Amino acid sequence: MLVAAAVCPHPPLLVPQVAGAAAPELDDLRAACAAAVGSLLDARADVLAVVGGADAAASFPGNAAGTLRPWGPDVRVGPGDLVLPLSLTIGRWLLERAHASAGDLPALRFEAVGFDASPAECAELGRRLADSAGRVALLVMGDGSARRTEKAPGYIHPGAVPYDEMLAGALASGDAGRLLGLDPDEARELWAAGRAALQVLGGAARGTPPPAASELLYDDAPYGVGYFAARWAW
Q1: What is d(CA 184, CA 192) in angstroms, rounded to the nearest whole number?
Q2: With left for phi above 0 and alpha for psi between -120 and 50, is residue 78 left, alpha or beta?
Q3: How far, CA to CA in Å, does 84 sit from each of 63, 81, 108, 125, 157?
Q4: Could you say which DSSP state residue 148 is in?
Q5: Mean pLDDT by 10-residue block, N- to C-terminus, for the chain (234 residues)?
């Protein structure tokens, strides 16, 4: 069953070696992600599953590795084959960064969900992950809209800020139903790359009591893209 969940974004610039001189601009986000991931390690889960969007669905073993070479320096995480997409590579980087001061990690698994996966497919993956062990923690990697400002990757869209405000409210309140109700077409128009991964979280939490604690640790758009860090605990 699901005992803890965290949500973090996955920009390559989160990694200081990639950001270079601009690294201090995301210090607050890194701190919020560290707090969110730390809560997963504190949950003493049997399995910690990292979920993130990708071009195609895939499952990867706990030793799977990733590299940030396409975005700059060859920062590598994980001891295995270099198979992880960006979202899961950043997720693994966050875990390894937290692991230095958090003791042994639980059993890991990595799940890529297709950016275009249907809500039903996302919910089913969430349910399967929640049922995969007695105590399950989820690290969900997902960005908000990339159309928040004129300098955003998708240029400005009037619906971007209201959409991200809705996501922030759902994450702050532990509202799994609102995540399950996300519209794929709206997310596509707003360049909200985290839609599918967030719906996996909604599916994992569906049928459980609301989280005993839910906290939004970060909500901003430093580069015109909505970034959130949040943690839920049961």
Answers
A1: 9
A2: left
A3: 10, 8, 13, 18, 31
A4: S
A5: 97 95 95 96 95 98 96 95 98 88 77 98 98 97 97 95 98 97 98 98 94 97 97 97
C-alpha to C-alpha distances, 190 to 9, 33, 171, 226, nearest whole angstrom: 16, 24, 19, 11
User: What is the CA angle 127-128-132, rounded to 5?
Assistant: 120
Q: How far is residue 217's CA from residue 8's CA, in Å, rounded to a whole number?
A: 10
Q: In whole angstroms, what is the distance from residue 229 CA to residue 150 CA?
A: 23
How many other CB atoms are found less than 10 A from the CB of residue 104? Answer: 6
pTM over 0.90: yes
Residue with tokens 């839609």: 195
Strand, helix or coil for residue 180 = helix
